[in-house]
Design brief:
Helix content is about 70%, strand content about 5%. Helix 1 (about 5-25) runs parallel beside helix 4, helix 2 (about 30-55) runs antiparallel to helix 6 and helix 5 (about 100-120) crosses helix 6. The chain has a two-stranded antiparallel ribbon with strand order 1-2. The chain starts with 6 loop residues before the first helix and ends with a helix. The protein has helices at about 5-25, 30-55, 70-75, 80-95, 100-120, 130-160; strands at about 60-65, 125.
Length: about 160
């Protein structure tokens, strides 16, 4: 449990409620299995990043108030799935292809930076050897990989449906 329940915990709770309220109505665009796998992918990639660059020997940043794991750190990982789902939802809905895809990834990465600035203001992140340019590069990488994963999921789903 948090040692002090303050701005960062309230921010995470509010952001979780708002972000899930936003994506739940959008869920029906894809099969439930694809929806769930996108959510798990984003939680896993966020946890993997925190487990590699957020701890020694790198230790670029801390989440929330303390370097030790607390409940709000766990809840923070559930903030990534709604943004990942919105990212693939809009990609699919707007049928983004070609050079527009690069613009879309860069634009959504800037959106991620904007949200990270708000998170930083709320005390969610405590940067040590990290800056927003590093985050921008990570967003570009993760979003590109997420789109590859998403396209693979849809192709697999369509093939499995066709075989029945």
């Amino acid at each position: 449990m948090p040692k002090h329940f303050d701005t960062n915990e309230w921010f995470i709770i509010g952001a979780l409620i708002c972000s899930y309220a936003m994506i739940i109505p959008l869920r029906k665009r894809f099969p439930l299995s694809v929806f769930i796998l996108i959510l798990f992918f984003s939680i896993t990639s966020a946890k993997l990043m925190n487990a590699t660059i957020g701890v020694p020997p790198f230790d670029f940043y801390d989440n929330n108030d303390w370097p030790e794991l607390e409940l709000s750190d766990v809840l923070l990982h559930f903030l990534y799935p709604p943004f990942a789902y919105l990212f693939v939802y809009l990609y699919d809905r707007w049928n983004i292809r070609g050079i527009s895809l690069l613009v879309y990834i860069l634009g959504f990465s800037l959106f991620g930076i904007g949200f990270e600035v708000i998170c930083d203001w709320a005390g969610v992140y405590q940067y040590k050897k990290w800056n927003l340019w590093c985050s921008f590069a990570i967003y570009i990488y993760n979003q590109s990989f997420l789109l590859l994963y998403f396209r693979m999921l849809l192709n697999h789903y369509k093939k499995s449906k066709a075989s029945y």
